Structure prediction request, 185 residues.
Amino acid sequence: MICIAVLAAGMSRRFGKQKLEYSYKGKPILQWTLNKVRNYNTRKLLIVSKELDLSRFDLKDFEIVENKAPQNGLSSSVKLAISKCMKSEGVLFLLGDMPEMKRESIEKTISLGKNRIAFPKFNGIKGFPVFLPSKYFSEALKISGDVGLRKLIKAHMNDVISFEDDWSCVFDVDTVKDLKDANER
Prediction:
């Protein structure tokens, strides 16, 4: 069995406020990602910081894991997820600020992953979700900073399988302008 980890412990520095609680097309930004993985019969984790007001979200089926050091960057959430999923076949990582990610992209990433690192890409840019097989857990637990799995993926390009997708696999909400532009689409 795999784990699904939705990473939602970011500091929202460029947004200026906790962006995941803001409305996007009638729902909080984070709820879009949660809804896309809700029906998978697997362990689902939501990695959050204490700044996120969880009362605004439907968290059924999710195990909440608090990242007590979100200032240490994305790697701190990645390592928390892996530490909770050590007995799994791998972890599928999603970002909480990507409301347009398609369920089809999630399913394809899972089906391709198995024993390889898998992810969609758009115009040569690595997107999300990212599947990390368990054989890389010990290496991933050594990462640091706000780079996530970037260096690990680069070091193992011979064990990566990716597929071309559309803009939704790279679109995230970083600024108030991103949110305004996306709501007007």
